[in-house]
Amino acid sequence: MRRPRSCALGAVPLMVLAGCTAGPAEPTHVASTKSMRIPEVVFTAAPRTIEGIDLCDLIAPDQARALGLSDQGTPIESEAGDTDVANECLWGSASAADNGRVALRVHRRLTFRTLLMQHNADESEVTWRKGHPVFNATGDSFLDCEVYVGVAPTQAFRIEARVGAGSGSDACDLAAAVADTVLTRLPVA
């Protein structure tokens, strides 16, 4: 935790400021220090592969219904020039009264460590699902949740879950259930 520095600036030369009272020394390069604290992620389960997989096939219609989603996902192609994203699939809510949705997107050629660094996160924020590293990029929001799941050294998928305000559901609980479903359906690399 940062403590404010206390100094009387008055006529004191600028070079003397180094002697001001302060809390513990802060690293001068926070980003590089943070990245050093993120080790390469070691998977505890066999790596899975997303290459060549139609994302919309990763949640079967009966599984989608059990999750409160529409039976079939709608494929969305990645933007031109976006080489790290293969494709995306979007499921709407099964309930006409709920504006919830789930989007599943593949990230390739990015290590899970790189995804953590892009979000200025560290290893303390990684949890595990079925032996694969998971990072919640949204914190404690219950209406919207963005979760990254590493499946292999250079493959991950992202789940963006949204639930309607009156649904009584938690978006991160939905994202976790979708992650479990997808992990069980992905083939071993």
TrEMBL record:
Q: Which UniProt keywords apply?
A: Signal
The source's superkingdom equals Bacteria
Q: Which residues form the signal peptide?
A: 1-25
Q: Does the keyword Signal apply?
A: yes
Q: What is this protein called?
A: Uncharacterized protein DUF3558
Species per Swiss-Prot/TrEMBL record: Murinocardiopsis flavida
